[in-house]
Design brief:
Strand content: 25-35%
Distance between the termini: 33 Å
Number of strands: 17
Oligomer: single chain
Shape: globular
Radius of gyration: 19 Å
Largest sheet: 8 strands, antiparallel
Amino acid sequence: MDSIVKTDFDFSGLTGKYTGKVRDVYFIKEKYMVMVATDRISAFDVVLPRGIPYKGQVLNQIASKFLDSTQDIVRNWKIACPDPMVTVGYKCQPLPVEMIVRGYLTGSSWRSYKAGARQICGVDIPDGMREHQKFDHPIVTPTTKAEIGGHDQDISKEEIIAKGLIPADIYEKVEQAALKLFERGTEIARQKGLILVDTKYEFGLLDGDICLMDEIHTPDSSRYFYLDGYQERFDRGENQRQLSKEFVREWLMDNGFQGQKGQKVPEMTDQIVSGISDRYIELYEAVTGERFSKRPYGENIFESMEENIKNMLARLL
């Protein structure tokens, strides 16, 4: 075993299980959630056929650190991380949109801009911008949450409110929280010699208050550039050195896959899988400033994980 792509636990008080693109979520007495960050990887809303060693641990531990370092901005769902790949927290009522905050014209926003779009999710983008150029101020470009197998859809603030997806007063709080989180993430990244380029936040309601859910500032939800040399590369029109999942998307596109019907995922060789794993670990060490400690994939890893979770739940229930 070199990765974990599926879990099948049975906990006391278990009331349901949700299998997402990359996480297995267990609901406990409709009050708590056990979120297992598996090693599954997705791109273009498609789960790829092979797991990435240590990816789940990387995502879970980065998210845990950022949840702890931003809880003064907005309440979050985390209670504890009883295992390197697991977070236990409160079950929130999810809001049906994802808040994308962009500091730079990069990735999908650049692809849309290059194709002629001058408005993204109701936000006007000026003419004459270049790839990887910094916006004067970070912009919020929400998307609807895709069902399993579907695609996230861009949506404007006005449409969200008009359709009744989120009440106007709640949306304003969520948007301001997203911008403050992005500002904090930007500060932390800069201290580590990185640029937080764009990221995704998910929010819900807990006891009537907005609550940050899921992961935060991980390579699956965020894009980072290296600060050193950014301006020189931008001035020369060169690609930026980045730490994100974008390199996976680029590899897929180079091999003719963008998640469209009839397209086939290219072969994920051992070399490709190992390279992706190395990039995730590189990002962990760059973002946290700490050396990554690999949790061994032994025969008893599921037993160990289950025991850690059950001990945590015993303290809560």
